[in-house]
Amino acid sequence: MLRTVFLLCLLLLAASAPKARAQTRRHIWAQATVGPYWFIDEDPIDHLIVGGNAHVTWTPRLGFEADGLYMWGPARDRDAQFALMATWDIFRPRPDNPRRYSPYVFLGPAVLWHHDDFGERGTVSSHEFGVAAGGGVRIEMPKFRRWFAAPEFRVGPDGGFGAALRLGYIVR
User: Fold this and answer.
1) Which of these, 36, 73, 37, 43, lies nearest to 160 by C-alpha position?
2) Does residue 68 contact residue 55 with C-beta atoms inside 8 Å?
3) How confident is the model at residue 20 (pLDDT cuts 50, 70, 90)?
4) What would the pLDDT profile of 49-93 be if each residue is shown by its tens digit?
5) CB within 8 A of 154, min separation 6: which ones?
6) Cα torsion for 114, 119, 123, 129, to the nearest 10°?
7) Is 111 exposed, middle or buried (0-12, 13-18, 19+ CB in 10 A)?
């Protein structure tokens, strides 16, 4: 599965290379993420996610980002996830008619670390590799130059899912 994701990312990169040379300016932005997340077990296990990422555009529609999340669960249940994502804007940017919103999807390999402390019964720690994916909508905030908000839905490498709100700042 990771091989397929890696090959898909390489294919997107190769297909966009001619456009990348024509693009004069790459955009870089940083984002903070917060929201609920649920691991699927007999019953869903609620978590709160907090994290951030750095994003670099490669072409007007293709970008790459490193994404890190920390998850607080019930009692002493803690998780962390790191992913390298390829992002794709659904609509092509148009300088003659800019949009205030931009729907996007993301996909990439991820690793999830899990730690749970059961007190006298001991602790459990594990990690797993997989694919993280999702989508959302970046919404420009015209009164706050360079800022945007992005509600999104995500699925993690463990099969869990969540909803998040990203707040982003365009660095350049």
Assistant:
1) 37
2) no
3) very low
4) 999 999 999 998 999 999 999 999 998 899 999 999 999 999 887
5) 37, 132, 133, 134, 161, 162, 163, 164
6) -10
7) middle
- CB-CB contact of 106 with 86 (8 Å): yes
The 3-state DSSP class for residue 101 equals strand
For residue 71, give Cα distances in angstroms to 29, 45, 114, 170, 172: 23, 11, 9, 25, 30
Q: Is 85 left (phi over 0), alpha (psi -120 to 50) or beta?
A: beta
In the block, tokens 């929201």 appear at: 35
- Rounded CA-CA distance 110/104 in Å is 19
Token pair belonging to 137: 């909508």
